[in-house]
Amino acid sequence: MQEGYFVFDFLSINMPDNSENNMGLSGIHYNLKFDKFYTGLGFYGSVMGERGGFFTLGLNTGFETFLTKNLFLNSGIHFGGGGGAGAPDGGGAFILPKLNIGLKFKKFSLSTGYSYINFFDGGKIENHQVHLELQLPFNFYSSTYKNAEKEFLFSDLKKSKWNKKHRKMSFMFNIDNFQINGMSKYRGKTFSLVGFEINSYLNNYWLYFAKFDGAFQGIPSGYMNIILGIGHHFTFNKNNNNIIVKFGIGSGGGGGIDSKGGFLVYPDISLEQKLTTNTFISINKGYLMNPDSSFETSTFGVGIKYYSEINKLDDNSKITFKGFEFIIKQDAYFNVERYTNKTENLYQISFQINYKINNRIYLAGQTSFANFGNAGAYAEGTVGLGFLSNYFMKDKIQIFAQSLIGGAGGGNIATGQGLIIKPSIGANYEMNSKIAFRTSLGMARATNESMDSPIFSLGLCYQLSLLK
Predict the structure, then answer these.
(1) CA dihedral defined by 24, 49, 349, 460, rounded to 10 degrees?
(2) Total domain count, the chain
(3) Which pTM was predicted?
C-alpha cells in the first residue's frame, strides 16, 4: 500500500502595492509519504483580493516528524511557476518554504505556522505570512506499470490484497461554452473552453470531482478555472442514462475576465447517454459566478466520459489492470513570439496524466505554467491522445508519440484567442518499477496567431497500474 494524503492550504499575501488588498491563495496538493519524508504536487489559485486568474503549479517536498502521538512538526518547501491577472510575477518562478506545527485527528490533521513566498525571477511578490493547512489521508494499492492490460482470473486474486472495496471513477474530456452575464465588459459574449474532469465516487450515488478548463476561443487568451466539488448520481433505463447534479467552488479568471479575487461558485446538471460499455456522451448546463455576481456565466458543454471500476473483483470474471502515468517535467520553448516584448525562450513547469486505453493508446491531460522567460502569467491546459511502442533495450526504453490540443495564453505570448496544438515524440527510460526518466521533442503552435516554437522537455514519470 502506498501512503499519501491530500492537502488544502491557505495563505494571505501582502502585495507590493500597499494600496492593494492582500491576495488570498488557496492550494490543493497530493503528497506521497515515505516514512518521515514526503513529496508531491500542488496547485495554487487566488480566491481573495484583486487578482482573480492568478494560478501556479509546483512540487512539494519535506519532512513530517511526530513529537508525541498526535503532535507533529511539518517542514517543507514548494517550488513552482505561474502568475497572472497583471500581478508582478516576473518570469513566474517562486519558492514557498514553510514550518508548521499540527495535530493529528482520527480522519484528518490540522496545522499552522510560518511560510515565506518569493517570486525570485524578476517578480516583486515577496512576503512572510501565516500558513494554514488541512490534511486528509488518501492511501492506495497499485501494481507495476508493466502489468497494465494483463488479464488475471478472480481465483488468482481473491485471497490477495486486491480483494477489498473497489472505487468507481470517471474521466471526461469536455468542451464548454460560457455566455457572460453580470457586469463584465464582455457581457453578452460567448467563449469556449477545453477541459478535463475527474470524478471519484464515495458510493453508488455520491461523488466528488475536480474540473480544469482553459479558454481557446471568443475572448483574448488567458482565462482558466479550477473547480472542486461534490455531486449526486442518478441512474435510469438499466444504466443507459445518467443525471448528475453537482456543486463546486474554486478559482478562475484571466483573459480580461474580471472575477475580482477569483473565488467562484459552480452549480451544474449533466445528462449522460451510454455509447459503449464504459463510455458515455455527456451534456451539461450550469452557472459559474463569483459571490456578488459581478462575473456570471451561463455554461453549456459536451464531453466524452469514461467510467472505470478501480480495484473491482467479480466472481468468475477476467480482471484487467489499467496503466496510469503521472509526469512532472520542465519544458523549454525556443524563440517564442510575444505581442509587444522581444522574442525569447520560455520555460515551463508541466504536469501530465496518462491513462492507458490499451497497450498502444493512452488518453492524456496536461497543464503547464511558465516559470522562467519573462512570461509569468502564461499557462496551458491541453488534452489529447498518445501512442506507445513495445519496450526494447532489455525492456528499459519505450518510445511514445502524442498530440495535444487546448487553451493557452497570458504573459504577452502571441496565442491569439488561445487555441494551441502540441505534437511531440519522445522516450521513457525505466529507472525502476515505478520511476522512468522522460524526454521529448515537439512543437507548440497557436492556430490563429504567430507562436510556433520548438519544445524540448526533461522530466520524471511515476508509473503504476490499478485494478480495473
Answers:
(1) 20
(2) 3
(3) 0.91
